[in-house]
Amino acid sequence: MRILILSAALAFAAPAASIAGPQFVDETGFAVSGYDVVAYFDLPQAPVGAPQPAAVPGRASITAEHNGATFAFASEENRDRFLADPEAFVPRYDGHCAYGVAKGGKVPGNPNLWRIVDGALYLNITPNVVGFWEEDIPGNIDTAEGNWVSIEPDAASENTIPQFTSAAPVTQ
After folding, report:
1. Which stretches of the chain drop beneath a pLDDT of 70?
2. pTM of the model as a whole
3. How far apart are CA 28 and CA 102, in angstroms?
4. Does the record bear Signal in its keywords (predicted)?
């Protein structure tokens, strides 16, 4: 009986887990400001406290749709990797700032302020916020995960990413 109840609970929970809230899309019209989400996973990650390598611009001619948004990629290979498993590459919290979600709201995520933790891509909004985020990454993730349940269905942020201008996606 216990297995039957657990199976029924998982059957109802699994579809809900795959439903995402609205993706953050900035003035570029692309998710993650047109940067290639797959490329992050091939970049060397800097230690906590050091700036990360710059994000890789995607191309306007190499795109895929996911969660109601257009993602751009630097190569067809990266697009194909994304299409095979989008959830492995999309930033957590629909591209919103991870620390902002930990604080209970949706604010833009800056594609150059990133970190991969346990195979998940997280973005933050400003260098100062990165400092707060990095003071307790596991604790901030736990808090953000708890908050995300209630704020995920809210509208995506419509704010501009502060102190950031995107050159992506390139038109080549």
Report:
1. 1-21, 172
2. 0.87
3. 26
4. yes
